[in-house]
Amino acid sequence: KEMADESKFKFMDDDNDENFKYEEVADEPDFDEDDDLMDAFAALQTKSGKGNSDFNSQTMANSITHVRPSVVDDFIRNFMIKAGMRKALEIFNTEWFELQSKGKLPAELSVAVPDIYLRNEDLDQQTKQLREQVEKMREVANRAQTTWDKFRKERDFHRMHHKRVVQEKNKLIDDIKRLRNHMRSYEPAIEELKRRHEVALKEKMLIRLERDRIKARVKVLEDQVAALSQPAPEAAPQKTRSATRSVRKHAVFPPDEPTANPFMNLDFDPALFDLYQPRKTYKGHLNSVSSCAFHPKKPIFATASDDETWRLWTISDSELIMSGEGHTSWLSGIHFHPHGSHLATSSGDSTIKIWEFSQAKCTHTFADHTQAVWGCEFHYAGDFVASCSMDHTVRVWDLISGKCKQTLRGHVDSVNAVAWQPYTANICSASGDKTVSVWDCRTGLCVQTLYGHSNSCNHLAVSNRGDIIVSADADGVIKVWDIRMVAELGTIDIGQHPINKLSLDRGAKKVLAASDDGTIKVVDVVNFSKTSELVGHDTAVQCVSTSPNDNFVVSGSSDATFKIWSK
């Protein structure tokens, strides 16, 4: 019963505001425990008297106008009252208040139960938010649709452009095929014209040579006629000399006479190689240009190549005069006869060939070497040719007998270069055994051996006076030697790249060095220093040669081109 009274006070407290005046309610002996809360509420109003009737009416008005949300326990109580579950209500109140007094009720059970109005407002707010989101998504979709339409138009434009480009490409391919077929029809005609041009140039050169020969013969005949027309003075009887020259069976070295060298008492100014510029570049071969040489009397130079051919060119306009084929391997050296009537070539097929211009053919082939021949050079008298080979030997060939005159043995490695000492019977050779040797061809003995290089000697050059030798090795080092004193005069280090060929000017004061770095080094032999470089080739320079008057320089490169240099 006390619990019932307490529940009555609790229920009243929920329905009244703070201004309500509480009065003590006396216990009613006849109050039945089975009465519900509504009966207790009515009895409490009857006991409170009429003095509070106005306040109660105001309170009810406030209760009507201000509806408080019911909490969970009130919601359950109202449900049980409406259902007439009084016993269950008493049990619920007893247990609920017991847990509440002990503080064991969780905080989430005191949450108000939302009514339908608040729930509807909640749903309306959510609906409003969802509609706003739908509008935003509709705007995004519209923008995406616009962008997609734009991309589709661009795609169609690029597709159309691509189709047009493909059509133009196919048209160009057809045009190229048609032009190629058209070009193929011209190739035989071009080859025929080239062949006719070369034949015409050969005939032209032969006519020139024949003309010069006839002029010389006419002059000799005129001199003979003039001599015969004069009366012969009376003189002591002497042996008659045959008008015809007797045929020699073999050549003989002329005697060594210091007065025979016309350069002995001449002094030339140093060549101005530093001022030379490339005047012409011409691709005259199909492979690397390995050697080049100037004609001793005419403005002509020759080139030899790894394509197994040699060719003659004019200096003025690089016009092809003559070409020769016959070697079966690459050509390594080329040299003119002192009279300019013959040409000697050396090759990797272990042979040396002598070409005669008047007959336009090879007149001699020397094949005694057992390995590749690196170089060849005519003797100043024109009756001998010296050659050097990978078989460690130097050979001297007699052009009259057509046989080997002398074989010089002494090097222990490949002999890479050979040169005659002017107006003597001595030969200078450079070898892979790092030495430079001087040989006497009459006896076949080594006269001097010059030591000093630390790597293979690739080439050498001898001055016109015959007193200086310039040699170069694979380390890029140039050495100057005095033959008479058998001593080293100086050393010039021009870089780490190998030097392939050397060429001295006529005064023996400047030397040109063909280097593997694509340049031609200009070296002062007097001061033992490098003065400048001639730059123009794209690949390694394989050969270099100066004209007899030092006015022109020809160089050959690994890219199958040769250049003409001048001031």
Task: Describe the 3D structure.
The chain is an alpha+beta fold. The chain is built from 6 helices and 28 strands. The protein has helices at residues 2-15, 37-48, 53-65, 72-83, 86-102, 116-229, and strands spanning 277-282, 289-294, 300-305, 309-314, 320-325, 331-336, 342-347, 352-356, 361-366, 373-378, 384-389, 393-398, 403-409, 415-420, 426-431, 435-440, 445-451, 457-462, 468-473, 477-482, 487-493, 499-504, 510-515, 519-524, 529-535, 541-546, 553-557, 562-566. The strands form 7 sheets. It has a 4-stranded antiparallel sheet with strand order 1-28-27-26, with no helix packed on it. β24 and β25 (529-535) form a beta hairpin. The chain is elongated, with a radius of gyration of 60 Å. Residues 1-23, 25-35, 55-67 and 235-246 have low confidence and may be disordered.
- What is the number of E strands? 28
Strand content: 25-35%
Mean pLDDT: 83
- From the alpha carbons, calculate the radius of gyration and give it in angstroms: 60 Å
Question: What is the structural class?
Answer: alpha+beta
Helix tally equals 6
Strand neighbour order, sheet with most strands: 1-28-27-26
Overall geometry? elongated
The amount of helix comes to 25-40%
Low-confidence stretches: 1-23, 25-35, 55-67, 235-246
Please describe the biggest sheet, giving its number of strands, its sense, and whether it closes into a barrel: 4 strands, antiparallel
N-C termini distance: 139 Å
